[in-house]
């Protein structure tokens, strides 16, 4: 970071040398111009060079400010690391506290990486500006040695173009530091909630069409902060991914879904539960293999918990991940393709990998039904899509059904399952259901599974 701070000093030295070179070139050029053209020419070059130097100087000051902020943040990191070392020496058994501290430090380092990247971007921009200014000066036409006697240069009185103070020395900008502090505070709250295991599970029904009978549920995770704020995945998953905690989060959600599935089994329900896995976790080496051991901890729920992956993950599977999915399939774990962006599928290949459900946005299906050019092949249109999947043992689910007029269109197309606010909103699972391990769930319980989300 010290090297980064010295960049501005080196840049200013180069600018000073460049300015001297510009003055020398100007003096040389003046010697070959007629007397009447000397004053306008020198004034033009002076204004142009000064404007360019002011702009580059301003960028240098901005980079210096960012470097100073980065240095202050690094001091904060050093202080936290010192506290962590002290905690290790005095209380090595404080595992949750250590994990929290390490997560905060990791988050801070991630934020500093962004600051350093911004600094590098500014310095690169300064280098480009200097190069362009240097090139423009070099591009000035060189006058050949005239045959006639040279005109003696006219010495102009020394003048200076005042540079506004705001341009030469911009005031420190607290916005980056304020944003960084706010992001640190937000990540600290998310980390504390995650360490406290304040994960809530909400269930949204998936119904059959046209009867609208509940067939299974999708588990939707939420994170409850210490102040009672309930965050959706888009509000906290990015932070957990930066901290490297996304795989652990997915495993916790899967554990809860298995507890819900066991509860449904004890109630005599045939409904199953689906769980969304984040692309970040699926791409993590060894993550899918870890799930094969996790599902073995509750063999009663095998076949009752569906694992959902986004379409992008299915298209980038390597041999190792395919082998892990093959083992999950052989154990009886149904798989699902989620978050699809188009209708280009190889149904046979998906079925061989263990896919039993394909979820598509209702808007995409309705639009494809209305436009003839949305076809899977010359002989297969969207009306044949559900049938083609069914022949491979895959059931189509239309998700995000938000308007009532979509329902008859989807039923006419032949979509067997649907999900959305038209049918039911997600509801939070009771804490006692999630708190009990799957084998310990009581078959005599008469409590309802869901409560209204608050």
Which helices and strands appear, and what pairs or packs with what?
Elements: H1 2-30, H2 35-90, H3 95-138, H4 165-168, H5 175-195, E1 199-208, E2 214-224, E3 230-231, H6 233-242, H7 246-266, E4 272-276, H8 279-283, H9 287-296, E5 305-310, H10 311-315, H11 319-331, E6 335-338, H12 347-353, E7 355-361, H13 362-370, E8 375-377, E9 380-381, H14 382-391, E10 395-399, H15 406-413, E11 417-418, E12 427-429, H16 431-435, E13 450-451
Helix pairs in contact: 1-2, 1-3, 2-3, 3-5, 7-9, 9-11, 13-15
Uncertain ranges: 1-5, 140-168, 437-448, 450-454
Portion of residues in beta strands equals 5-15%
Task: Indicate the radius of gyration in whole angstroms.
Answer: 33 Å
From the helix content, strand content and strand pairing, which structural class follows?
Answer: alpha/beta
Largest sheet: 8 strands, mixed, barrel
The number of E-state strands comes to: 13
Secondary-structure element string: HHHHHEEEHHEHHEHHEHEHEEHEHEEHE
Helix content: 55-70%
Strand order in the largest sheet: 1-2-4-5-6-7-10-11
Basic shape? globular
